[in-house]
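Q: Sequence in, structure out?
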Amino acid sequence: MSFRIIRTDSDVTEGLQWLAERDHRFEALFRATGPLPLRRRAGGFASLLNAVVAQQVSTAAAAAIWQRLEVAGLATVSGIMAVPDEALRQCGLSRPKVIYARALAESGIDYDALEILPDAEVIKTLVAVKGIGRWTAEIYAMFSLGRADVFAAGDLALQESARHLFSLNARPDEKALRAMAEAWSPWRGVAARALWAYYRVIKNREGSI
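A: Exactly. Output:
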């Protein structure tokens, strides 16, 4: 297995130290944010479906929809396959997300196999499913699989945080941020956790962005 897994807080700390030694701006970031969260979660169908539910909606809205799905017993493959579209719509899923949820349920993904696939193969497997974009695939790889060197460069909060931390004239787009993140390998997953934490600091400092 040629990839590093983030399993404990000590793994995050190791990544932090590596980043800080190579760029003093990360050291300043850590002073502002304090300890970073581990942000590990269980893998499997429910975790990936949860990421789909969270796409392009607020955290509060995603949590409410997810709770309704769980109460209705629709957070499983069998649950989704057993009901008509309207049952999913009543839980709050949009019409496109109903399609995505069904596609995921029908995908036959071997979640255990994902645990041992290289990062690139994990992303390739997931984005092959309708409704799973690169951002969703990378979030799953980072937090459900614990991949230490995956970085969700398309995330707007990461882009804005990088703009502030590195005093950029404009927010970097996905391509530019992905290129920047090359310097943070093999700890890009920790860099992402750091930038997300820094984004919360910025929001608290400035009210809103």
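The chain has two domains: 9-38+149-206, 45-143.
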